[in-house]
Design brief:
The protein is an alpha+beta fold. It is built from 14 helices and 8 strands. The strands form 2 sheets. A 4-stranded mixed β-sheet has the order 1-4-5-8, with helices on one face. A 4-stranded antiparallel β-sheet has the order 2-3-7-6, with no helix packed on it.
């Protein structure tokens, strides 16, 4: 399917303007979130609206024509959108990773070409992960003699993007990153995505068969992880923002149900404690606990984002890179656990009527649990503990 032509997006000038744009976008699509979740359909119109909003260019450096805004702004943008629909919020995730990669290590030609397209509203998606290997870095996709061949999975956003960034091993065994136009000959995309949550991400597979590669759009990706870097931390900050957004959205919907729909439990009424569900002392206590957890997750997210602001895209040394990774690891691990906890416990507040499928409140748990499976929180806590106890730096492979 083609991507509709659109007017050039207006450049966003400030963090406040970016967050405001995110709020307007989130509000505009709020009415369709249940339908998208139930259908698991590709949010073509919503992502096109996002691409036209100017938000694609918020992290493009100013010297290349972008907004040049820091990670703290992007984190708040993502959290705002994810509180309404985390599946749509996840669609552009890899776009910001590759914007960072090109800004830090791309050639001047790559920056001119790709950033011009980004500022025109053309998104970059990913084709990184593969199935069947011994581990996540065991890649079979090959770049040989200027041709790309292989099959990728979890290609979030690829079905509606203009560019796809593909990892491949070249003839020397070196890891490369190749930018391919989605509609290039030999590129085949599939909607083979059938999961319990984050359904509207439609993160299916993409195949490359003898795709001609422009040599000017090949980047030495291995080098990005041979030096201190923040790509992993910045990408994980995006994921943490999604989880914290889910937690806030679940808490919001729980409150709305308790205040507007729930009836008091008969034992509370019998004891003379509650004429309304929101007067039940156990409901009050539980809501206060959940609200505190969400506030803590939001605070950790802000702290991590501001840490990355301070460190910058290219950290000064390994210690600075580690500090950023550890800050984000705390936010991601706690945010993921909080989202799952709040999305489950909301039913303790709302009662049996909230389980009616017409409310689709279970989507919060399904989204949180599915997205949290992206990478285990246990390893994040492990690296946090080793760093704080023994000063062991976390791995520099881009995932923490």
């Amino acid at each position: 399917m083609g991507v509709a032509e659109q007017a050039r997006p207006t450049l966003i000038a400030s963090g406040a303007e970016a967050v405001d744009a995110a709020g307007r976008f989130a509000a505009s699509m709020a009415g369709g979130v249940i339908g998208r979740d139930r259908a698991g359909s590709l949010p073509v119109a919503e992502l096109a609206q996002f691409d036209a909003s100017g938000l694609l260019g918020v992290t493009v450096p100013r010297k290349h024509g972008g907004s040049g805004l820091p990670p703290s702004v992007l984190a708040e943008v993502v959290r705002t959108i994810a509180a309404v629909d985390p599946a749509v919020a996840q669609g552009p995730q890899s776009h910001y990773l590759f914007t960072d990669v090109v800004a830090a290590f791309g050639s001047e030609g790559q920056r001119r070409r790709l950033f011009a397209d980004v500022l025109a509203g053309r998104r970059i998606a990913n084709a990184l992960a593969e199935r069947g290997g011994a581990h996540a870095q065991d890649l079979k996709t090959r770049l040989s003699a200027g041709r790309l061949n292989g099959r990728k999975y979890y290609a979030t956003g690829a079905l509606t993007a203009h560019w796809i960034a593909v990892t491949a091993v070249d003839d020397t065994g070196r890891l490369t990153l190749v930018f391919i136009e989605r509609e290039a000959d030999g590129v085949s995309l599939d909607e083979d995505w059938n999961v319990m949550g984050q359904r509207a991400t439609v993160s299916g597979s993409v195949s490359f068969e003898n795709v001609v590669v422009d040599p000017e759009l090949v980047l030495d990706y291995a080098h990005c992880f041979e030096v201190p870097q923040q790509f992993g931390a910045r990408a994980q900050l995006y994921h943490a923002s999604i989880q914290v957004g889910i937690a806030g959205g679940a808490l919001r919907d729980a409150r709305e149900f308790v205040v507007g729909k729930a009836r008091p439990f008969f034992e509370a009424a019998w004891a003379g404690w509650a004429d309304r569900a929101l007067d039940d002392p156990h409901t009050i206590h539980r809501f206060g606990e959940l609200a505190t957890r969400v506030a803590a997750a939001e605070a950790l997210l802000r702290e991590a984002a501001h840490t990355l602001d301070e460190i910058g895209l290219v950290p000064a040394d390994e210690d600075a890179a580690a500090r950023g990774s550890i800050a984000v690891a705390r936010a991601k691990a706690f945010g993921s656990e909080t989202a799952v906890h709040v999305a489950s416990d909301l039913f303790s507040l709302t009662g049996a009527s909230a389980a009616d499928e017409r409310h689709d409140l279970d989507r919060h748990w399904r989204n949180a649990r599915t997205h949290a499976s992206h990478d285990p929180a246990d390893w994040k806590y492990h690296h946090i503990g080793r760093y704080l106890l023994a000063g062991v730096l976390p791995p520099n492979h881009g995932q923490l």
